[in-house]
Amino acid sequence: MLLIIKKIYKSILSEKTRIKLHYIRFSIRGYFYSGSKVTCVCCNKSFTKFLPYGKVKRENAACPSCNTLERNRVLYLYLRDKTNFFHDQLAVLHFAPENRLEKIFRKMKNLHYISGDINPQVAMKQVDIQSIDFPDNHFDVIICSHVLGHVPDEVKALSELRRVIKPDGSVIIMTKIYNDISATLEGSELSNAEDQEIFRKHGKDFHESLQRGGFDVSIIDVAEEVGNAAAVKYGLGEKELIFLCKRKVKS
Ligand SMILES: [Zn+2]
């Protein structure tokens, strides 16, 4: 019965509408967790706790109201406190936009902001990261969080990111790093059923792939930088690293 209702729901409403309804549900949920113990920097509200999230549930992960995760809050704090993102005039391309962050960035008058995804239902423009439909040297900032594990050809994707970023621009990359893997696994090296949704598991050598793609890479650990008390208060998780990529100057 539940399956039939779900099917009817899916056939009547577009994916965009369903996502909107999803987030209305979250904002109602937020009222039940109002408090002062933790604060979500993305919706600027405080709660008794962050909620568990994930196939294997992580504690203190999802904001009760806007449903942002640790990595989204890390990215927001980094952009707000450590970059010119909130005040300079910037051309921005945001891949696989997180709902809450996209909402905030679209309203920012200083940004010429475009979100892109292979699925046009979840972004402003359909964009394939392996063949980005923009001219060379076009963007000041590209945000690419938790995308590269899901892309068939990562080398091509990095080459395209390098092509469309301005020489002094910043490509901000995040991904799930499997700390028990020293070298990234892909293709036939992925054997588990749970791996079927992804093309690779990034290991501790991830930054080397970015360097081979033509970038100088700085690895930023925002949780470590703000200290343990703030990291807990803002629900920043552990080892949600930012890989800040700048175009290497060809010698
Ligand atoms: Zn929130």
From TrEMBL:
CDD domains: AdoMet_MTases (cd02440). InterPro entries: Methyltransf_11, SAM-dependent_MTases_sf. GO terms for molecular function: S-adenosylmethionine-dependent methyltransferase activity. Coiled coil: none annotated. Pfam families: Methyltransf_11. Signal peptide: none annotated. Residues 122-173 form the Methyltransferase type domain. Gene3D superfamilies: Vaccinia Virus protein VP39. This is Methyltransferase type 11 domain-containing protein.
